[in-house]
């Protein structure tokens, strides 16, 4: 029902509460320009993941508006919106299916080879091959347990396959060893180049490499600027 083209994000005076009377976001305004990477930082509970959820339209806002490429997302079909945006959530939940299909979900028409290329780019291919059933390994609630970082890399592979114009990434808060962390950074740098990226950042390296930083405090933008300026 519409055409997204550039990958620009605008929040305009957004207010939001999950339950009446307890405001989570207060008058939040910011813009992410096409191709930029913006890091969202702030204390636990300040509303970072909420911003990601609102962009994907898990909830509707109370006042203000959220625009993508100048179009109010509340007036856009959820399917069109979600086909344009890739999300890597804070706690990735994989489907009760095998790893191959979990990655292919990013683009159902992808070939097995494309699935594996995405896994290589997300630095999870070798780990998958080390499993007894490889890409046929069942994951999710009933299947094998992957670590938080490994699951997030499966989600990154899915996003690489999807190749959306806008990427929303909610970095895992769980402690990762430094090698895993570096690998995730590298796979993200690959997928994020040429895309508009809004990343909830816990790692200093992510923050330093971003074009702009938004500091959230109690649901308000407290500071905004580049790393050198803050
Ligand atoms: P963290 O760094 O710990 O991930 P965050 O900045 O991502 O924190 P949010 O998840 O956006 O924080 O939550 C912001 C506030 O909204 C918190 O006070 C949280 O308790 C509340 N909240 C989050 N999800 C819900 C929900 N589904 N229903 C009610 N309140 C919620
Ligand atoms: Mg969060």
From TrEMBL:
It is found in: Cell membrane; Early endosome membrane; Endoplasmic reticulum membrane; Endosome membrane. Residues 9-230 form the ABC transporter domain. Homodimer. Belongs to the ABC transporter superfamily. ABCB family. Heavy Metal importer (TC 3.A.1.210) subfamily. This is ATP-binding cassette sub-family B member 6. It comes from Triplophysa rosa (Cave loach). The chain holds residues 387 to 616 of 650 of the full protein.
